[in-house]
Design goal:
Elements lengths: L1 H10 L1 E17 L2 E16 L3 E5 L6 H8 L7 E6 L2 E2 L3 H7 L3 E4 L13 H11 L6 H14 L16 H13 L5 E5 L7 H18 L2 E5 L3 H7 L2 E6 L2 E7 H6 L4 H8 L6 H6 L30 H5 L5 E4 L2 E3 L4 H4 L2
Parallel strand pairs: 3-8, 3-9, 6-7, 7-8
Antiparallel strand pairs: 1-2, 1-4, 4-5, 9-10, 10-12, 11-12
């Protein structure tokens, strides 16, 4: 009975996003503006202890999804729920930020150069008043530093004295300060050397296992995403076009855009690499200011028909846990 209850609890979503929209209004002339649809009707959920990878080309809206989820941008429309509760009012957001934090992409610009490592990591503790004495604060900071492989003598130093990988560890320690359940990882290894990336990714895995964390892992490196993610979502021009378990999306991508992305992933075996056919997309990504009618991918899709121009395909489940937004999924993959 206890095992059944545990399984039910694990299947319950920690984060639920429904029809999320984030529009930025751009001035186009005298007293005129036009919406730039950075995120346009995205829906997904993340179970407790799970990692959802979010991938796509630069400018597709991945980072905006993460920032809007944490209310760093005010959502234009849609619902965000944490553990079943709708996050809407200012007090909701304040409570939510005690349980949800972010690791930023650039470890060079996301840390205050005037603050010591101790003060950077301790800042969330100060903001949320999470200690009763200076000693308790200091003990917590040293504990967080030990989680990410930093020594106690690093506490009095400044961010510019560290390498990129160490700076990102400082940023990760800061994100753990409030003892969160959920972390948005916004391309956390893209600015690091390849030799350091594996160390940081493994650390994310270890922290997840040790602290029971849930991740939204935003990245453009598909090999990194495959290593850390349980499920993967693919975005294109502000919309989600495919969502499936990580192994399935790599072995059997169904959307033409996903197929193209995965065909570009380098394969270590030369024979396999030569046998693989690269699917090269023609044309540039349209501007979100002037997105095509219907399916946003139709201008670069060799399977596009008149129907693709007339209506946006429904994001629907075509196999267990595998969602696709394409009018011709069955024909293309038959």
């Amino acid at each position: 009975m206890a095992d059944i209850e545990k399984k039910v609890g694990e299947d319950k979503p920690l984060i639920e996003v429904k029809d999320l929209k984030e529009y930025f209004y751009i001035n186009t002339g005298l007293f005129r503006s036009k919406p730039l649809k950075a995120v346009d009707g995205v829906s997904f959920s993340i179970r407790k202890g799970e990692t959802l990878g979010l991938v796509g080309e630069s400018g597709c809206g991945k980072t905006t999804v993460g920032r809007t989820l944490l209310h760093l941008y005010k959502p234009t429309a849609g619902e965000i729920r944490y553990d079943g509760k709708l996050i809407k009012s200012r007090s909701d957001i304040k409570e939510f930020r005690k349980k949800a934090t972010m690791v930023f992409q650039d470890p060079y610009s996301s840390l205050n150069p005037r603050m010591t490592v101790s003060d950077i990591i301790g800042e969330p503790l100060d903001v949320h008043k999470l200690y009763s004495s200076k000693q308790e604060r200091q003990d917590r900071i040293l504990e967080l530093m030990s989680y990410v492989g930093l020594n106690s003598e690093h506490a009095a130093r400044y961010a510019h004295e560290f390498s990129g990988g160490q700076r990102q560890r400082i940023g990760i320690a800061r994100s753990l300060a409030v003892n969160p359940d959920f972390i948005v990882c916004d391309e956390p290894v893209s600015a690091l050397d390849v030799s350091i990336q594996a160390q940081v990714i493994n650390m994310f895995d270890e922290l997840q296992e040790k602290l029971g964390l849930t991740y939204l892992f935003v990245a453009h490196d598909l090999l990194v995403v495959r290593h850390i993610s349980d499920r993967i979502a693919v975005m294109y021009l502000g919309k989600m076009v495919e969502l499936a378990p990580a192994a399935e999306i790599y072995d059997r991508p169904l959307h033409p855009y996903s197929k193209s992305l995965l065909s570009a992933v380098p394969v270590p075996d030369p024979k396999t690499a030569r046998a693989n056919q690269r699917i090269v997309l023609t044309g540039d990504i349209p501007s979100p200011l002037n997105a095509p009618s219907g399916c946003p991918f139709r201008t670069r899709c060799k399977y596009a028909t008149d129907k693709c121009a007339e209506s946006m395909p429904e994001f629907k489940e075509v196999a267990s846990g595998h969602f696709v937004a394409c009018h011709r999924t069955a024909e293309i993959n038959s």
